[in-house]
Give the backbone structure.
Amino acid sequence: MGHTIKKEPERAILCAVSLPGKTEHTEYAIEELGRLAETAGAVIVDTMIQARRAIHPLHYLGAGKLSTLKMLAEEQDADLVIFDDELSPSQQKLIEQELEGTKIIDRSALILDIFTMHARSREAKTQVMLAEAEYLLPRLTKQWTHLERQAGGIGMRGGPGETQIEIDRRLLRDRIIKLKIDLKKISVQLDTKRKSRSKRFNVALVGYTNAGKSTLMNHFAGPNVEVEDQLFKTLDTTVRRVQLDKAHTIYLSDTVGFIQKLPHQLVASFRSTLKEVETADLLLKVIDISDPNFREHMLTIDEALKEFDIPEKRFITVFNKTDILESAEHIKFVKRTYPESFCISAERGIGLEKLVEAIRDRIDESSYVHHFYVDPREGKLIADLHKFGEILESRFVEDKILFTVFLDGPVYESLKKKYQL
């Protein structure tokens, strides 16, 4: 991708506005913003939270506090100020003028930068480039000076493969159109792959970033998914075929994690990735039970999934990381509050037997026992019945073999069409 590597990490100040009744929420948001900044490679040198009745339409903090922020940046020798909310183009321009010489980015730009770092597949790279281009379009006049590639650093990496520095608005719009066309072509290819998996029960892992989805994926499918304690460390959707037992095989998908205030440009561009969520037969909503803000995480996930038409019955809530809780009472409280949920530790394999049993039960709800009279010479059909189903009984009836087979609903429909049963 050609990132510019800086010898010293950028020194960042975090900045947020706390609205009435939102003090606790703001403190959590600024803590999360710090983790995002550290993921991008910054060192946090200070934090400024300003209580206001509303975000100032021009100065964000207010004119007086902006002057204070300027002095703080000078005192801390800060290279970078990161704002917790997305700045409007006019806000960004004014703040950059006031804090001349200090780089100004917002939460959206920071998240886009992290996605740029971690995009690996052609689909993910295209999605990130599209989201970045749409974010930059209204900020084009000032932003290109701000985002010169030779400067490097957080918020300045550019899209994967991007080399052009000066680009006018028309060229950027053309780029957006081209990226959307490319993404549509990739989406068609992925739809074909999804159709090939429709013969099996599809399970998708959804959750807040860093909730342990990849660790759970590795428990089921083997250690092939990158796991690290960083936000958005895994970005591309991973799909694995998992044999739960002879009669129950699933395709398991690990999707991109959610986060507060995820840039709307990313939500839109990652729509094709999240089709794994939309087309899945079952979603495991993975929650980090050890995080004191897990309820907010659940609300963020639910809000993001509202864009998709997913019946409530297609969810199972899974509380992960029970092994690092200090009190067993916490688990009991969660179980009382969410009686249909499962408490597990994907890291240590605790509680997974009951979760697997619940997944099998969901598969069985869409599966049926079928009877087939098969000519002994139909070797391919007999092989597929053994491969895709559980043979409960087979016996000769005159010149045919009567198979009693337990089959997933989608598999039965596929075999019925293939062999004209």
The two ends are 52 Å apart (CA to CA). The chain has four domains: 11-111, 118-182, 198-363, 367-419. The longest helix spans residues 169-197.
